[in-house]
């Protein structure tokens, strides 16, 4: 569900948005910028989804094991 929001911004910012982003794309642009700062993902669910991806898990394990081997040979 979408909600309408009225905001007040500097005239120069508005003109820049209108010119650079386009008049019909400003809402989407602002939403994409703001979303990561205000909508927190459900990390437990996201991690569970990632763990179900067997190919990704296999690649991650191979990378981790290769990295571990590299660290074992480093000097302090």
How would you describe this protein?
- By secondary structure, the chain is mainly alpha-helical.
- The protein folds into 2 domains: 1-39, no CATH class; 43-72.
- The protein is 67% helix and 0% strand.
- The protein is built from 4 helices and no strands.
- The protein has helices at 11-20, 26-38, 43-51, 54-72.
- The chain is elongated and about 60 Å long.
- The chain starts with 10 loop residues before the first helix and ends with a helix.
- The mean pLDDT is 87.
Judging from the principal axes of the Cα atoms, what is the shape?
Answer: elongated
Q: What ranges have pLDDT less than 50 throughout 5 or more consecutive residues?
A: none
Kindly state the percentage of residues in helix.
55-70%
* Helix and strand element order: HHHH
Derived structural class: mainly alpha
Strand content: under 5%
Domains, number: 2
What's the average pLDDT?
Answer: 87
Using the CA coordinates, give the radius of gyration: 22 Å
Biggest sheet architecture: none
Extended strand count: 0
Question: Distance between termini?
Answer: 56 Å
Number of helices: 4
């Amino acid at each position: 569900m979408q909600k309408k929001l009225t905001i007040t911004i500097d005239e120069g910012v508005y003109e820049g948005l209108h010119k650079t982003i386009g008049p019909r794309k400003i809402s989407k642009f602002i939403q994409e910028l703001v979303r990561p700062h205000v909508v927190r993902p459900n990390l437990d669910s996201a991690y569970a989804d990632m763990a179900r991806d067997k190919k990704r898990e296999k690649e991650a394990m191979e990378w981790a094991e290769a990295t571990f081997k590299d660290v074992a040979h480093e000097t302090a």
